[in-house]
Design goal:
450 residues; alpha/beta; 8-stranded parallel beta barrel; 3-stranded mixed sheet; 14 helices; 13 strands
Length: 450
């Protein structure tokens, strides 16, 4: 890369710039106006599941402050806003009566975006499964194919005339791995007996969701989002290289390749063959989907070493704080080249038409001093990563956009409120909003004029 200062103009007029958020992490109002109970509403009440026993019941209170937050998006001159719909706000029990008040809320959010010339990018599932469905097995129950198809159809029929860009799932590897294998996320289940069917059913729903949207709204742009990290071996030893290859297959390839008709990566992950007991003859074809675009969500790289003690993959991730590198408050290494490598990796798939970076950002221990948040580390992080996005854009005609995570500070899952990713600082006692220096930097970057 040259020392050239990158501006928005270098990406061309059609490049998509935005900011992202999610319903459960920011809305609050968790039982307001008929909203049902989600798996996270249940999970956060269990002792020691969330740092400091925090919960999302108020969060950033986007439910009441959506106009304020959209006004701030406009003030920062960000043209696109990605947010999610809470399944339980629309269908409280997951597969029963529709809650009109929930639909009305999302109409208001979408209408206010459009009135302010902000394009909504809507995610249909960002981890908040209705508890009533989890009581029946949740993602481990094949019935979720019907539950999810019905939910998607309700949303698309309701908003198809206002929303043109849809994402089906947010990071299926994370919500199935964290929630159904490691147990660190809702619903807190563990083991292969839960992970394997949840993984398979999520893959099927990924395709069913896309096909349902296209059937109802043929002109819509439809995608899904994948978490991804550049994986490198800890050393040049063959054992570390083999371990890194397995982790790459698990974290980066598991949900994209079956969707493209390439099948599960059984060669690198033989334990996945257990999925065959859950597969019907038509499933291999049913998993395939022709997305208009894919979203990739990258924050860091992972360095992997061989480990005798980790079953099945014989690999372990070496934490950033053990490697003497600069890292964020999440203990994620700041490694901007990772986003370039992931854009390159996912773009290389023949079946991928377009790539949008739908999340990228960093958590640092922000403080508000004299009504300002001088988050210089985040500015440096964003600059360095956008430089790598530009590096990709110079040679990659599939790359079409970049979204910062996140709009506001919010509830960061098991990390509670300790982690702050926002361009906007939230005082959780008063709900006062303060645009951080990084938000002002992003505003100026997006409005640079020659």
């Amino acid at each position: 890369m040259s020392a050239k200062k990158i501006s928005k103009n270098d990406f061309g007029e059609d490049f998509i710039w935005g900011v992202s958020a999610s319903a459960l992490q920011s809305e609050g109002a968790h039982q307001t106006d008929g909203k049902g109970i989600s798996i996270w509403d249940t999970f956060v009440t269990k002792k020691n599941k969330i740092l400091n026993n925090d919960h999302h019941f108020d969060a950033a209170n986007f439910y009441e402050n959506y106009k304020t937050d959209i006004d701030l998006i406009k003030q920062m001159r960000i043209p696109n806003f990605r947010f999610s719909i809470a399944w339980t706000r629309v269908i409280p029990d997951g597969d029963g009566a529709i809650n009109q008040a929930g639909l009305d809320f999302y109409h208001q959010v979408i209408d206010y975006c459009l009135a302010n010339e902000i394009t909504p990018f809507v995610t249909l599932y960002h981890w908040d499964l209705p508890q009533a469905l989890e009581d029946q097995g949740g993602w481990t129950n094949r019935a979720i194919l019907n539950w999810f198809e019905n939910y998607v159809a309700v949303c698309i029929n309701e908003f198809k005339d206002k929303v043109t860009h849809w994402m089906v799932l947010n990071e299926p590897m994370v919500f199935t791995g964290g929630g159904y294998f490691l147990g660190i996320h809702a619903p807190g289940k563990k083991g292969f007996k839960n992970f394997i069917p949840a993984m398979h059913h999520a893959l099927l729903c990924q395709a069913i969701g896309c096909n349902t949207i296209k059937k109802i709204a043929p002109s819509a742009q439809v995608g899904t989002t994948f978490s991804c990290s550049y994986i490198t071996p800890y050393s040049n030893s063959n054992r570390d290289k083999k371990a890194a290859k397995k982790v790459d297959a698990l974290l980066n390839r598991l949900f994209i390749e079956p969707a493209l008709g390439l099948g599960y990566p059984f060669d690198d992950l033989p334990f996945l063959k257990r999925v065959k007991r859950y597969m019907l003859p038509e499933d291999e074809q049913l998993m395939k989907v022709a997305f208009d675009f894919i979203g990739i969500q990258n924050y860091t790289r992972e360095v992997v070493a061989h480990s005798y003690f980790v079953p099945h993959i014989k690999a372990k991730i070496i934490p950033a704080d053990k490697r003497k590198v600069f890292y964020t408050a999440m203990d994620w290494e700041v490694y901007p080249e990772s986003i370039y490598e992931m854009i390159t990796k996912f773009s290389a798939y023949q079946g991928v038409k377009k790539v949008i970076v739908t999340e990228n950002g960093a958590s640092f221990p922000d403080e508000i001093i004299d009504n300002e948040v001088a988050d210089e580390h985040r500015i440096h992080y964003l600059k360095a990563h956008i430089d790598q996005v530009y590096r990709s854009h110079q040679t990659n005609n599939k790359l079409e956009g970049y979204f910062v995570w996140s709009l506001t500070d919010n509830f960061e899952w098991a990390e509670g409120y300790k982690q702050r990713f926002g361009l906007i600082y939230i005082n959780y006692q008063t709900q006062k909003r303060t645009i951080k220096h990084s938000g002002l930097w992003y505003r100026d970057f997006l409005n640079f004029e020659l």
